Structures are given as C-alpha cells and as structure tokens.
Amino acid sequence: MAITNDNLSSYSFVKEMYEDDYFPTFLVDKCRNILIALCEEIERTNPAKDSDLLELTHAATEEINELASEFEDNDSELETNAREILAADFDFIVKAYGFDLDIEEVIAPRDW
C-alpha cells in the first residue's frame, strides 16, 4: 500500500539520519520503513480517536526500540540527534493526519 496523504507521500523520512555517517544506512532504512508502515496503518485503519492513533504510534515506537541493540552492534546508537529526528518525524506524521498531540505522548514507550 502506498501512502496517499499528500504531505507524506513525498516526505523524506529520517533524512538527517541518512546524511550522518554515524548511522548505518541499513538501520536507517529500518527506521524509515517503520514510519512508512505507520502511515500506511493510519490510512488503513483511519483512527478517529487520539487513543486509537496512540496505539499505532506506540507500536511503531516499540519497533524502533527493538533496533537499539542493532545500532549498538554496528557502533552506533539512537542518541540525541536520532531521538530528535525520529520525534520530529512522528510529530509531522500525526499532524499530517489531523491530530494535535504532545510528542511525548505520541512516543511515550520510547527507550531512545
């Protein structure tokens, strides 16, 4: 399924992570794919309530959490810069779908 939201269909997810050699490209790809899958799931389920959207964003956040050891195994980590980039992308996504939520609530289960 392709993203149909005009604001997101051509959005460059985790762009700054790709531009930083500290982050292995194959792991940045995994982060990007999680965010794309989140968008697709939002479009598929069309959550009407904040709590429904938060279920989806929390699941995506937990998937990114699971990548932490892979980053460490590759001499990298989901550190301050990555946290800011990922949080900004999550924020952009929820706003693009018409939700106005605090980013800390959106990514509440994060370990990064």
Q: How would you describe this protein?
A:
- By secondary structure, the protein is an all-alpha fold.
- Helix content is 64%, strand content 0%.
- The chain contains seven helices and no strands.
- Helix 3 (25-45) packs antiparallel against helix 4 (50-65).
- The chain starts with 5 loop residues before the first helix and ends in a 6-residue tail after the last helix.
Report low-confidence residues grouped into runs of 5 or more.
none
Element-level helix/strand string = HHHHHHH
Q: Percent range for helical residues?
A: 55-70%
Q: Strand count, sense and closure of the main sheet?
A: none
What is the terminal-to-terminal distance? 28 Å
Give the tally of β-strands: 0
Question: What's the overall geometry?
Answer: globular
Whole-angstrom Rg: 13 Å
Mean pLDDT, to the nearest integer, reads 97
Tally of individual helices: 7
Strand content: under 5%
The assembly state of the depicted protein chains is single chain
What structural class is derived from the secondary structure elements?
mainly alpha
List strands and helices in order, with pairings.
Elements: H1 6-9, H2 15-18, H3 25-45, H4 50-65, H5 68-73, H6 80-96, H7 103-106
Tell me briefly what this model is.
With 112 residues, the chain is an all-alpha fold. The chain is built from 7 helices and no strands.
Key phrases:
single chain, 112 residues, mainly alpha, 64% helix, globular
